[in-house]
Hints:
There is one protein chain. By secondary structure, the chain is an alpha+beta fold. It has five helices and 18 strands. The protein has helices at about 5-10, 150-155, 265-280, 300-320, 345-350, and strands at about 45-50, 55-60, 70, 70-75, 80-90, 95-100, 110-120, 125, 130-135, 160-165, 180-185, 190-195, 205-210, 220-230, 250, 285-290, 325-330, 355-360. A hairpin with a 2-residue loop joins strand 3 (about 70) and strand 4 (about 70-75). The protein is elongated.
Amino acid sequence: MKQFILITLIFSSLISKGQNLVLNPSFEDYYDCPRAMGLFHKNVKHWTIPNNGTTDYFNSCSEDMGFKNFNGYQKARTGKGYAGIYTYFKKDYREYIQGSLKSTLKRGKKYQVKFCISLAENSRFALKEFGMMMTSEKFNASKSKVNINAKHFAKRIPNLKYRPTFSKEFYNNDQEWIEISFTYTADGFENYFTIGNFNNNSDTKKSKARQTDYESFSYYYIDDVSIEPLEKEEETKIKAEPNLKANKVYTFKNVLFDFDKAELLEVSKAELNQLYKHLSKNSNLKIEIYGHTDNVGLTTRNQELSEQRAKAVEGYLISKGLSATKIKSFGFGSTQAISSNETEEGRLQNRRVTFKLIQS
């Protein structure tokens, strides 16, 4: 596969220590101010829920769902927003948060995972274990409200990994934020992650935090989620000009989209900005953009999605100042696979956006 070398030669965007790969890590970006309970899913940007729970979103913009709320009082650790989940409730009811990564984790590389929690004041129980489930695609158990048995799924689903965390003490602090941190070694498929309690009630270690008038439950606020590489990678030598040749097809490395979406992720824009600079310096060049998908889903949807993603790249370059007469976009759906669609690694290579420079 021909790789897009513009970034490897000009833009040193290789992951380095201190770069958080979690999109919207402190829940500051949202569509609507939360006025009621259960408004986390599809409202907090780049975050979803993996089951049929009603995960909550708190933000100081709201009177009812602000820092003073139905389960207590807590200021955001960073900014104005944070999430809230039931980690223990009757009939194994559970809530989770599912986040997106800027780029796929690299196989064999070690990452530092951190997130901060605070026990809600109305909770009767405190827990001593949280878990993280890593997946290549968004996990979907939308018909279930009970705990996700990630340990069981990890044994039979190839691109799913479960990482529990254990504490000697119970997380019973309802005044301050507590940081949970652990090291994670990637398998190379990780694009999404889910945080919560994956055990059922009988397997959950809990301690009575206080006597309350409420039902027996455990509820935690969550803020500041980060996944950062531990080792700084060697940066490539920067050159003055990229060695891009006309009439050759190059593959973007960091032009990425959420699953089944055509909205450019923020991480994609740096690469496109560098491409725009190159085109600006070479006014004799035109460009064609090609969108591709894997074969998962309906053929008509894949064709539509490939066209939309190519069009998104075209639109971004035009918004930067490139003349619309110098760019065209095309979608090929799943018709031009460059790898096997039988494996996730192969499907990942097939989900790509490519381009070709044309001498005018």
